[in-house]
Specification:
The protein is α/β, with parallel strands linked by helices and 286 residues long. It has helices at residues 7-19, 35-47, 75-84, 95-98, 117-120, 124-139, 151-163, 193-214, 220-230, and strands at residues 2-4, 24-29, 50-55, 89-91, 143-147, 169-173, 238-246, 264-273, 276-285. It contains nine helices and nine strands. Helix 6 (124-139) crosses helix 7 (151-163) and helix 8 packs antiparallel against helix 9. The chain binds adenosine monophosphate. Residues 29-30, 36-37, 39-40, 146-147, 149-150, 173, 175-176, 183-186 line the site of adenosine monophosphate.
Length: 286
């Protein structure tokens, strides 16, 4: 596996791939690779001639007081995982290269970034949208792969690719879970035994609300209450949000009722467990 650190070299390589008519799939990550990342890589491997994985803990998507400094960076293990998964190029961007002296160009989305994680992590999606735009302009992939675990991020990326006429197909991949339903995340490694056990409540909350919808419940308030019953705050869990929203726009349901017209409803939760912030979601067709 080839490893490149600077944007110029990656630009040159991507030009070479293009000249040779080789399709490129990009999997953007922050490293500490787990089975969720590997599932994205496997999708890219199945659909593209060359697979590029970027590993960059993007400082601009962390708010002050978040875990930027302590975020895991096991580079050697990540490179080995990439090697084993048939990745062709690992792009380990450096902050000084992506955000050089004098940097001042940001990508901002309006409505999609206001609710949910946008509300709880000010500036987060500005950082995400900006770095994803940079990675897409450097790698110029035919396809880029994102996990539905970060559902709002998926919508943000799809929207910015459309709005900026970026010639990349955005591919969304199902969430990979632990046997008890906990969504895989690089942050799970930081959970203590007690918090790890409590972490399964996020998925249980989503399942409970899904069951309620399937049982005919259409009151948003009741669905939220149903999720909150699984997520009662205590020593081990602080709830950021539990919400039901339109899965395409993230808009709230104005009259407090789910529509019943083949719409898709996003059930999304975020909680902090002993200082570790976890998110999860599912989409339910109504
Ligand atoms: P991260 O390194 O956490 O920024 O994630 C990089 C990419 O992997 C993002 O597109 C995530 O949505 C995706 N991802 C993270 N966890 C999972 C998971 N459990 N299942 C599927 N994709 C995931």
């Amino acid at each position: 596996v080839k490893v490149e650190k600077d944007c110029r070299s990656v630009l040159r390589l991507s030009e070479r791939y293009r000249a040779a008519s080789l399709s490129v799939g990009l999997v953007p990550t922050m490293g500490a690779l787990h089975a969720g990342h590997l599932s994205l890589i496997a999708c890219a491997r199945g659909e593209c001639d060359r697979v590029v994985v970027s590993i960059f803990v993007n400082p601009t998507q962390f708010s002050p007081g978040e875990d930027l400094a302590s975020y895991p960076r096991p580079l050697e293990a990540d490179l080995e995982a990439c090697r084993r998964s048939g990745v062709d190029l690992v792009f380990c961007g450096a902050a000084a290269d992506l955000y050089p002296e004098g940097f001042q160009t940001w990508v901002n989305l309006e409505d999609l970034t206001k609710p949910l994680c946008g509300e709880h992590r000010p500036g987060h999606f500005r950082g995400v949208a900006t770095v994803v735009t940079q990675l897409l302009s450097v790698v110029k992939p035919q396809r880029a792969y994102f996990g539905k675990k970060d559902y709002q991020q998926c919508l943000v990326v799809e929207r910015l690719v459309r709005d900026l006429h970026i010639d990349t197909e955005v591919r969304l991949v199902e969430t990979v879970r632990e046997p008890d339903g906990l969504a895989m995340s690089s942050r799970n490694a930081f959970l203590g035994a007690k918090e790890r056990q409590a972490a399964a409540r996020l998925y249980r909350a989503l399942m409970a609300a899904r069951d309620a919808i399937e049982g005919g419940e259409d009151s948003v308030e009741k669905l939220v209450a149903c999720m909150r019953r699984e997520l009662v705050p205590g020593d081990d869990l602080h709830l950021d949000y539990a919400e039901a929203r339109d899965a395409e726009t993230l808009a709230a349901f104005a009259d407090g009722r789910l529509p019943r017209r083949g719409n898709h409803v996003l059930l999304a939760v975020a909680a902090r467990l002993g200082g570790v912030r976890l998110i999860d979601n599912i989409v339910v067709k109504v």
